[in-house]
Amino acid sequence: MVSKGFRKDFLWGGATAANQLEGAYNEDGKGLTIADISPGGKLRLPLLFSGDFPLEIDREKYTYPNHQGVDYYHRYKEDIALFAEMGFKTFRMSISWARIFPNGNDQEPNEAGLAFYDAVIDELLKYKIEPTITISHYETPLHLVKEYGGWKNKELIGFFEKYARTILERFGKKVTYWMTFNEINTGIMGSFFSTAMRNATETENYQALHNQFVASSLATKIAKEVNPTIKMGCMSIYATMYAYDSNPETVMAMEEKNCMFNYFCNDIQVRGEYPSYALAYFEKNKIEIERTDEELAIIKAYPVDYLSFSYYMSTTVSIDPKHQDDKIQGNFFDGVRNPFLTSSEWGWEIDPVGLRIALCDLYGRYGVPLYVSENGLGAIDTPDEQFVIQDDYRIDYLAKHIAEMKKAVVLDGVDLIAYTPWGCIDLVSASTGEMSKRYGFIYVDLDDEGNGDMSRYKKKSFNWYKSVIASNGEEL
Ligand code: BGP
């Protein structure tokens, strides 16, 4: 039956990641992660993709904004009280693997790290905010890169399994919603954040992803043993894809990209099997990865319960050479300019209808509950002397996306369970390490140079989102 609006138990909230939020990068026994050696600034992503950066902290050359994040580690009580004031039903957070196992593969977990997340989770539950936990959000322990070469090494499966078991056993009785790897499909392009490898070959990228699929299914297996009511989800970027024109060759080129980028990881994690187009792609491109029968059986036996995805923008594919000079940069991918869309200050094309298309497409393909785990506008906010921030542009972006989500639910019958806009409190940008690329309802007084006392201020969007939640998405 098609519903009249969002479900009564719809999980409104916000999303974050430990490495972009917490700071305290070397406190209470935490080890270094890949985020801790990722330089700040607009060159971050090109640098990380070039592989030309040290696996050490080099303060002479670079800045490291993730080291202090926005100091959530010490201010989480104040921040959670603000989330509660907005009426959050859920809060998507990640656990930093290196707070629990500083090297990623230590014999014993670090009790101080576990105690921190116990306190955070209890604080959320105090306000009846259901945590959603990402087990790995761009924060593989650095030791596993230096000693094991990152995710192409199958030993990481066992290390991850132990880490997942530790946190699921500790928190699995009080936390229902979990996700395994953040934006797992960025591994296809060899994102350092995702697979923790430098200068990897395409074969290594797919090997690393395979190892993560196995690790993800093992985490699902453990979750079910710990508490059968746990809901385990996968998480990938979804970029609605358009063919620039109706030339069948353009549509075919778009479809090929669509399969490998938007479907490949979801097909495996939701359906439990490698899709035939991927096997054909491997064969055509001489990609040979090591996949044992036992691993394939684990993937088959433990698919996820729901599918979550980040949605910031769509992308457009053209095979016409004259369009190739007019490229749009996006969230880990590029495309040609879509003449029907405008862009954010960081060049990401804004496309609310694309979100409805995404929801219909994914629900039609998989038929499992969907969770929009990231969405939002990275923008420059300019506070006045009283720190009043009139962020109508953000309200406009979010309202239009929520309106399209609602159409997907009401008009198209999609089973949507949650919406957690990205960076509900300002935090360090993943792609640039900037503070100036802000997404939050809550402003944090900190700039790109590290100036500011990190006080928190409610933006105009704070009260707007509060009334969206109170009206269950009716008042936009
Ligand atoms: C996603 C990541 C997040 C986040 C977000 C916004 O790709 O999962 O970690 O940061 O994008 O991107 P950015 O911070 O680069 O603007």
UniProtKB/TrEMBL annotation:
Keywords: Glycosidase, Hydrolase
Residues at the active site: E374
EC number in record: 3.2.1.-
SUPFAM superfamilies: (Trans)glycosidases (SSF51445)
Keyword Membrane assigned: no
Superkingdom per UniProt: Bacteria
Recorded family membership: Belongs to the glycosyl hydrolase 1 family.
Name this polypeptide is given: Glycoside hydrolase family 1 protein
Lineage of source species: Bacteria, Bacillati, Bacillota, Bacilli, Lactobacillales
